[in-house]
């Protein structure tokens, strides 16, 4: 479970209205009794993608193209554009992916933002090797010997159980 509180669309909408009326983020947070950080993120989202993006916030994930990721990360890291301006310019709805792209861009350059293949690669298991006739027979013998040992053990356990539960005449 997350410890974050999820606020409804009405609260986020009210924050956007107050922002449009000229109130600052701290004042909005005090008026609607929501933590400052939450309101700051809402206002960043509102300024970057508008009221529609703010209303669907937390309901869907947006997929961004490789070019958008590189351009946004490059703008912030290399060109000195603020994160909020980059979000508005490139239509990024949340600060989190932008921060992740910036970190990856700093560590590995543009290639670090290239999409990675999902799932397990085809043929990842080792191919079954072809056994010789002799190896096949040895494997079959081992299997039969194990089966035989299991059956002998089972028969011995059943006989022991019967001997324990059998009635003995009293002296």
Automatic annotation (TrEMBL):
InterPro entries: InsJ-like_HTH, IS150/IS1296_orfA-like, Trp_repressor/repl_initiator, WH-like_DNA-bd_sf. Residues 109-136 are annotated as: Disordered. Pfam families: HTH_23 (PF13384), HTH_28 (PF13518). It comes from the Bacteria. Residues 70-122 form the Insertion element IS150 protein InsJ-like helix-turn-helix domain. GO terms for molecular function: sequence-specific DNA binding. Gene3D superfamilies: Winged helix-like DNA-binding domain superfamily/Winged helix DNA-binding domain (1.10.10.10). Belongs to the IS150/IS1296 orfA family. This is Insertion element IS150 protein InsJ-like helix-turn-helix domain-containing protein. It comes from Slackia heliotrinireducens (strain ATCC 29202 / DSM 20476 / NCTC 11029 / RHS 1) (Peptococcus heliotrinreducens).
